[in-house]
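Posting for a labmate who doesn't have an account.
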Amino acid sequence: MNKASISRISSSARTFSWPGAVPCSQVAGALALDVKEKNRPLGLLALFIAFLLVVNTSFARDSERPGVPSGIKVSNRSATSITVHWERSKDNVAVVEYRVIVRNLNSADKPADQVIVVSENSPEFNSGSVVLNNLVALASYEVDVIARDAAGNSSDDRSVGRRANTVRFVMGDRTDDDMRSYIFGHSLVHHTLGDSPEVQNIPYWLYELSRLGGHEFSVDGQFGFLPDQELPPWYQWSFTNAKSAWNESFAKSDYDNVIITAANFIQKWQRPNGDYLDTSLTARFSRIYQYIRSTVVRLFDEKFRPTLFYAYMTTSVEIESLRILDYVRTEEPGINFYIYENWPGFEGDYPFPATADTFKLYNEYVIGEFHDWWVEMQDVMNEARPGARVMLIPVGSIISKAFIDMPGLATLTMDELYDDSAPHGKASMYFLASLVFYMALYEERPPADYLVPDTIPVQIQKDYAAIVDLIWHELAAFNYPDGSSRVWPR
């Protein structure tokens, strides 16, 4: 560093001062530049430290986010008001306000969220609570609580897997004719990554049919294959029309039924109880390899999420289904419990996009071996829990039967039915599935005067009445050997 540079730093340092601060003699001497030569290294070091302090003080900024408010709950519920409570957040400096965001989930016009700012000078800040007034009776609400500090850092920037800072509730008592469903599902129930996700799901169409049929339908659910389904469950889904039924907790939500579904690609290699269908030497070595590979990876990274193949090797569809069944029956004794039979992917003998011939072979497989697997799943669950009536909604096999038996539907193209080889469905597949769901859950035909919208292929619109007849007759004939229904809890 030359003398000119030292002079510039020294001049800048002289112009900066801390209130009440007195520089030490070494710093003062260094600034004066008249210290003895033997003190020059110490003086330069002190000057450098002082310079760093100036830069740090001038440019440092609080960048740490406050903790996420937790323990969100409600009390003092009336027809139009409720009190929301939360546990105060921690911050490296201080939280200066909470923002309470109130969202009406049932409003058709989707109004802007109401934001209530609870500042550090208000009594609500110290109590960690706020009273919400003028709420709509019977509406479902979602409330988020977000903490902010003086630097503008917000807790909502943190990753919260189960949204610990959120609570859902319903205002007032609902009518007795509500149908409230909770679904442990995946993308063959709710396809959020499609081109039109608002209509590429079963609940959307089930709500539309229910509304015209004079029913109030509300639904909640969460994503995950059976080994990954979390308990207690939570409200992960939302739809543009169907209402949420969640009311603080699963037990308080008073669901009428619970619906589960397994992965759609395990039926060729594993039975519901865990036994393997393919016992060839090649298949055995393949399973052992996958098991060892996943285990080794986990040893090096405890946060590694096991592959689904690994998960099903260490458990079974039966074990995971009973885990869910036992939980929901503890929370809601006597609740109706359904298995949703979905449709398989295109692979092996059934490439995608399918030709007319391979699509016929695919549908024959769905009606045959694929459907038999789900029947076995229902049987093993009922054998394990004879006191719990487990029903089966045979969606995949009935839709495939319609594709084979109804000539008009044979004109439908792959692009009108599926997004990919998985196969995630277009709106048409979820609409057809919702027809089976409606008749299974309500034990009645859907409205005959329902006008199928143009978002559904024209041929399905034309054949709506015939499709309904086919589904109804298939469900009526889906019985145990003694004649009792496999789908209707009569």
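Reply:
Got it, the structure tokens are right above this. Confidence is low (pLDDT under 50) at residues 1-36.
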